[in-house]
Amino acid sequence: MRIRKYDSGFSRRAFLEKSLKGVAAAGVLAPLWPEIARSGTIDKVYPDELLSIELYTKGQVKPGDVITADNVEVVKDLLDPIAYRQVKEMGRRINIVETTTDVTKLFPHEYLEATLRNAGRAKFDANGNVVTDDGKPWIGGNPFPNAQTGEEAFANLTMSWGRHDESVYGVRDWDISPNGTLSYQYDFIWAEQNTVGLVNKPSPYQAGAEDKLRYQAVWFTSPTDAKGTAFLNTWHYDQRKFPELLGYLPAFKRVRNFPTNQRFEPLVPGITIFLSDAWAAGDPMLTWGNYKVIGTKPHLGAVSGNWSGKTNPNWEREVHGGPQGQTFFEDYKELVPEVLVVEAEPIGYPRAPVSKKRVYIDVRNMMFVSYLTYDRRGEIWKSFEPAFSQYKDGDAAYMDGAHPLWSWTHVHSHDVQTNRMSRFVQAKQITGGFGPEYNIGPSIYDKYLTAQAIRRFGT
């Protein structure tokens, strides 16, 4: 047990001092990343009250408890404003679990190894793009694990969304209307292939594609009137450039170019998800600007215990809350000892309906745990709240090579101005027989990520 000089107000004072000094270095008792490199844990980095929700709340909340409207005031400072409103006014509940101190459970294994191996080698070039210390494209892992600025924090989100070289997600989405009824239900595939920063290959670069960052596609398999609708993004490595965006609409039976800077519109009717929302970094990083860290704080984040592969064979989730009891997924949150709160503005979009975004980033793995957007009047508009987990549920596990898979499990995308909720899961199988595929190699490109591929799926 540590000496109790770290009383219940120590962490609050430490974070306040950081904020006043403009310091973003992670850790309270010790620097975070040297300790992770040494031991793989955060036990010696934070005082007990930041590793235990029970100590932080002076016994009012403990692991196994459920946050409801009756006790949400106790943890109000650990929630973003929309999550607080969801619990207080809409019947959402949040299950509390232990804080994860073993950092290996917060990453894909190879990605964490690359982060440690390449630490200290990233910098920004004269144009603001991430390069290595010898001026080459990035070589894998988080480029700035100990991010000091908003730009560095967002580079960690941008350079590898899903933190796998290749990812194919089978997504099942439910869109809930303001009166709590189901208005739309979609199945779609989301595919990503990074072309630089590869961590599962002999080379960190896909030969001939070093000028790209990623290929990304989405196409719908259900319902019938949306089936075949598909979009393909080709991202340039230069983050000043907009991706090339192709789309296939079954009604027109052809692939066509779409305006690539219109990234704040629903993909299909009824859904609240925009291209801009992906991973809180769905746009090229340098089309946003005025990045700033506005604070550091503890936060509740859904980062562990959220895979239900043993209890639900298709990895779906129980629902609750809202007028009809189906607005929210059941999810599990832990006390994240420290998040960076980062804001940015859309400088590359003169007609953007968004004035700024605010992102809460877990410093342990530099992944976002909450993301808010504000309209042009400065009013809160939407939240995009993810849940992550190792894919391990008791004695059941879904493996990524020799290790349990780490990935996102589900998302709440809530437009609070219209009170429409899109909630979606990464399912084991969706309509058409599609399901998850990870690190599958070059075959993903021809299968999913070309104009011919989205036309083939559309027909």
TrEMBL record:
Pfam families assigned: DUF1329
PROSITE patterns, per database record: TAT (PS51318)
Superkingdom of the organism of origin: Bacteria
Protein name: DUF1329 domain-containing protein
